Amino acid sequence: MSEGWLALIQQALSLLFSLDPDVWSIVSVSFSVSLAALAITLIPSMILGFVLAFARFPGRWFATNLVQTTQSIPTVVIGLLVYLMLTRMGPLGDLKWLFTQKGMILGQMMICAPVLIAMSQAAFTSVDKRAWETSRTLGASWLRSVWLVCRELKVPLLMAIVAAFSRILTEVGCSMMVGGNIAGVTRNIPTAIALETSKGDFAQAIALGLVLLILALVLNFTLGTLRGRAEPRSL
Amino acid sequence: MLKLKSILSLAIVASALTLTSAQAEEIIKLATTTSTENSGLLKHLLPKFEQESGYKVQVIATGTGKALKLARQGDVDVVMTHAPAAEAKFVNEGYGMMPRGIMENDFVILGPKNDPAKIRSSKTAEEAFAKIADSGVGFVSRGDNSGTNMKELIIWKGAKVEPTFNGYRAVGQGMGKTLLMANELQAYTLSDRGTFVAYKAKLDLAVDYDGGKTLANPYQIMLINPEKYPDLNHKGAKALSDWLIGNEAQGMINSYTVQGEQLFKATYSE
């Protein structure tokens, strides 16, 4: 290495703390796209998870396994599917969403929905059924009872949200394919890191990596605290 | 369980074997640009060299900027790029040695087939660029410090246009991907002719402007200074450089065609 490690880290930190406009535009693209995708998918996915956990209907077993399977599809494959849908020749070509943030949001929705559904289903399955039945027999409305169960499950549901969010915030395959890494428009943290590394400019890549790292730490520690409060630690 | 173990141990043995056999023949690491790789020229030339010399060439294809950086850091044995200004700097600063121009192709300005910015009548590449900026049709830039990207920025400078206008998109991708994006967006872009011909069948784009001195694109191969990095494969690097300027390789470069078009012109002269 011709550049010392320390010099690189120093450059990276100065980029972050001098609020370098390029770096922060990249960070804001990442967050606005991923938060939008999460916000749109959150409620429908939770409802589906709830239905899969509590309802009994033919094909439930199949649906559950399907969701489990889609969780493990590589993001590049989802990227490819969305790309083919949005390309000029594709069925949704008229939308002109390819290489726009809308397209990226669509791709990320498809990535985070299975995670949300599967994890919320697992959470709802684990809850004591009696809580639900009691509140129903006491005459609480259906919605109120759902709310009650959700409050009971605060921690596992939050874990589902954090897991889904971190998956879409850090995935590179789908964002690169569908977004196209356009500077200032669809360039997010992972695609920028990939680009800077391929150019051999490591300072910005490290700065962006640090943002992800700090975020992961904050999220995990928050979860840890929540979990610690929810279940008394056994000695 | 036992089965899994035996499969694993087999895999380990197999990988160990391939490692040792790879070390048995000497490796040359060549850093070069995506254009030589995407166009298929290297696949056409290198097997012949490997067969004659016994060396094995490992190609690392990136943009010119990164290729020169790899060479600067001593991560590769030899480098072949196409950005005269950056190459001169690389040699003058004592990292590169014995630069040899081995071939050239040219850049073309691609755009929608109906040429909405009317650049076909332009006198120079700069004029064509200025028209694109004024038209609002859109321009897709590699934006990755590659030789093509450097050339594009030089043309913007010559045209006295800041490449920040509405519709200018820097995408930070290789040439092939950039062409596909320009095609999807039906925008203009600057490409080397080689990659364009290789992708032609997939594209709904046409050469809207070409020719002239500005768009010439010469390739050089350079050795790396042994005083800086004594432990690289300098012998192999020299052998590859010598072979590429020989009659046989120069003839092979001229005879390489894709879809009936010659992509590169051999240019080495003593």
Automatic annotation (TrEMBL), chain A:
> Which InterPro entries is this protein grouped with?
ABC_perm_TupB-like, MetI-like, MetI-like_sf
- Tell me where the transmembrane regions lie: 35-54, 66-86, 106-127, 157-182, 202-223
Location relative to the cell: Cell membrane
The answer on whether this UniProt entry bears the keyword Cytoplasm reads no
- What are the residue boundaries of the ABC transmembrane type-1 domain, all occurrences included? 27-223
Identify the keywords attached in UniProt to this record, alphabetized. Membrane, Transmembrane, Transmembrane helix, Transport
Give the CC-aspect GO terms: plasma membrane
Q: Which is a GO BP term held by this UniProt record?
A: transmembrane transport
- Membrane topology (UniProt): Multi-pass membrane protein
Write down the SUPFAM superfamilies for this protein, in alphabetical order.
MetI-like
Q: Does the keyword Nucleotide-binding apply?
A: no
Q: Cross-referenced CDD domains, in alphabetical order?
A: TM_PBP2
Record family assignment:
Belongs to the binding-protein-dependent transport system permease family.
Question: What protein name applies here?
Answer: Binding-protein-dependent transport systems inner membrane component
This chain's source organism reads Shewanella loihica (strain ATCC BAA-1088 / PV-4)
